[in-house]
Structures are given as structure tokens and as C-alpha cells.
Amino acid sequence: NSESPPQKMSNLEKAGILNKTKICDNGKKVRKNWGLSWTVLHGGILTFHKDPKSNPTGAASKTNQFVPEFTVDLRGAMIGWAAKEKSSKKNVLELKSRAGAEFLVQYDTESIINDWHKVITDTIRQLDVE
Ligand code: I3S
């Protein structure tokens, strides 16, 4: 269709701060460790960066927040609102990768989490038709 934008992937990019925890690795449950992450969506890959507070020296490092902690390939992934039992927090999204990793992603401001929900959903759909 000649009406479609020439660079579809360009609206499927986003970056910002989110509260996140891994809950499952390779299909195996892991202990929650909530922390704020600089989160980047680019090229169908979601990257959570390290929480500056996680620096083993205890000192907040200015560079640590740019160190990738987890990457999630959104091809074949699933995203949705998490069931109440999953967390006592509000506005919690559950993200499951095809590789068997599961994350909870959360932010108190509804509009912010809604924007992430939309862009991740759209990215998963786009990767599905490629
Ligand atoms: O699902 P859970 O186990 O109730 O999750 C809570 C715990 O991980 C808790 O830490 P420890 O029990 O490991 O000390 C966290 O501090 C809470 O934030 C977790 O629950 P929420 O409801 O915040 O996701």
C-alpha cells in the first residue's frame, strides 16, 4: 500500500526508565529483584540496563546505568497485564520471551506504562509478519 510509511520500524523505538524484575529464567522461577532500569527498545530487541545501585562497591556509579543487564528478543515474545497474584505493585506488565525468560515491568505513572505496552505489543506484531 502506497500510503504506508517508508520506515515502519522507526515508530517501534523507545527509551526510558522502568521498574523491572526478572521472575523466570529458562522456564525456572528466580527470586524477584526489583530495580529501576534505563530501558531501550531498538530493532526488536529490548535491553534493560543495570540499576546504578547494583554496583558492588555500594557507590552509585554514573557509568553503571549504561551497562546492559538483560536483553530480550521480542520475536515470538508475549506481553500482557500481569495477574494480581504476580505482584502487589500497580501497572505491572508481564513479558515472556520465546527463550523462556519472564520479566515483570512496572511504572506508577499509567501513561508511561501504557506507552510501553503499546510499543512492545506493536513490535511483537510487526516481527510476527516479517
Ligand atoms: O512475589 P513475591 O515473592 O511476594 O515478591 C516480593 C518479594 O520478592 C520481596 O522481596 P523478598 O521477599 O525477596 O525480600 C520484594 O521486596 C517485593 O517487592 C516482592 O513483591 P512485589 O509485590 O513488590 O512484586
Automatic annotation (TrEMBL):
It comes from the Eukaryota. Residues 1-9 have a biased composition (Polar residues). Residues 11-125 form the PH domain. This is Rho GTPase activating protein 27. It comes from Astyanax mexicanus (Blind cave fish).
